[in-house]
Amino acid sequence: MRTRARLLGHPIHPMLIVFPLGLLATSLIFDVVHGVTENGAWSGIAYYLIGAGLIGGLLAAVFGLIDWLSIPKNTRAKRIGAYHGLVNVGVVGLFAISFALRDSAPLSPPVIAYVLSALGGAVALVGGWLGGELVDRMGVGVDDGAHLDAPSSLARAVKIPVRKS
Questions:
Q1: In a domain, 29, yes or no
Q2: What is the pLDDT of residue 160?
Q3: Which residue from 8, 49, 64, 112 puts its CA 20 to 30 A from 118's CA?
Q4: What is the pLDDT of residue 145?
């Protein structure tokens, strides 16, 4: 099943997710650099990266929702898509709280802001895996012959008989 939200023949949601993921992941790296160097400018930059990542995440979510609404009901893909969306809303929520906590002192945010960002980064890995399960395992959004009830990639490998020529 191909996604309805396309630009020049390509699904929009996967095009957009690279921006928030890259921005938010880079903010984590800059927070670590701040911790190592004790130079608050790095956390200041992280603050702006998080802000941009939140905007990008919300924009990507709009197209993700459009894609999810087109997945047939009562399929594994619909369930995985719902988990994917909810997990990523959680990621945006964790980073949004971190962003808000940084607002009064971007160069020296409270420790909880770092903790929430790190937790958001870890949770983003789960959301990314779920998105990969949808696209890579099931072909959602990219293949007219998508297998919407494909088993999990974590399930035991099924032996496929080799055809003799």
A1: yes
A2: 53
A3: 64
A4: 67
